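Weekly puzzle thread! Below is a chain. First person to post its structure in token form gets bragging rights.
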Amino acid sequence: MHRPSLKRFAWLSIGHAMLFLLLLPLPALAWNAAGHRLVACIAWDHLDQQPRSVISQLLREHPDYARWRQRAGDGDTDRSTFIEASTWPDDIRKDTRFYSAGVDAPTPTLPGFPDMERRRDWHYVNRPFGDSREDQRHSATISGLLDKQLVTLAQTLASPGTTRSERSYVLPWLIHLTGDAHQPLHTSLRLNAEGKFDRLGNGLTVINPFNPRKSATTLHAFWDDLPGPVWLRGERLDAACQALSALYPRPTPSSSAQWIDESWQVARSSAYPPGDDSQPTISVEFNENARAIANRRIAEAGYRLADLLRDLLRGQ
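Winning reply:
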């Protein structure tokens, strides 16, 4: 049977928890770690025992399992490790064992890995807002691979002909990229007033009066940080996870292509502050609407990740 090649992908109440997330000033770090943990938390809590068992065994065979286990702390080891594994594709961006293709020299391949590439272009896809020739030119030359990798990773995880080493490697990627597909600014291509690509909102500085620690940030970082503080774990993470599950119902079944299309629609209609200021200020209305969108997208990603893993691992 054909095996897809890896080189083709490479103590709060619910109410208090939500208030906590809405009011806390956020640092402009790398959906950030809290967002990916929330997606994984919701997904795990909506899986039954059969896929949980398969997932846990695969994660134990991953070369970085001990690192996740160490961060997971006390409690349900399998659940906590699954949650910690969700941030791994972002964690390796600063891990010197890995390298960025076209930027760094390749590093030695360690046991259990297909190679040590960070695969930065898996995290996003560039879909233009407009149909102009310039939009299409940018899309053709800089587009990321998020849409393609979601499909390839899912095929690899489900394929009976795939080795366990390959499956343990792709699983954290699939967990993580499901979250990325629900972040609006991971799916867009917008040209600024000078006709230049704004780099998924990284090229637009905004003034955010709701973050007193760092009022000036990129629009992309503003969206990444909406789910909560990067250190969110443990009981506070659980409370936030339960709150989101209570607020947002399970969405109808859909494909990864639909997730990306939804994010693109949000990016085009709601991700950018209104007006044409070169450095816009985030208004109360925009901030509240963005937070509501982010919360909904995190919940949808969690439900959909659970459905995806259940389908892919059925009978294994």
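Puzzle host: Confirmed. Bonus trivia for everyone else. The mean pLDDT is 88.
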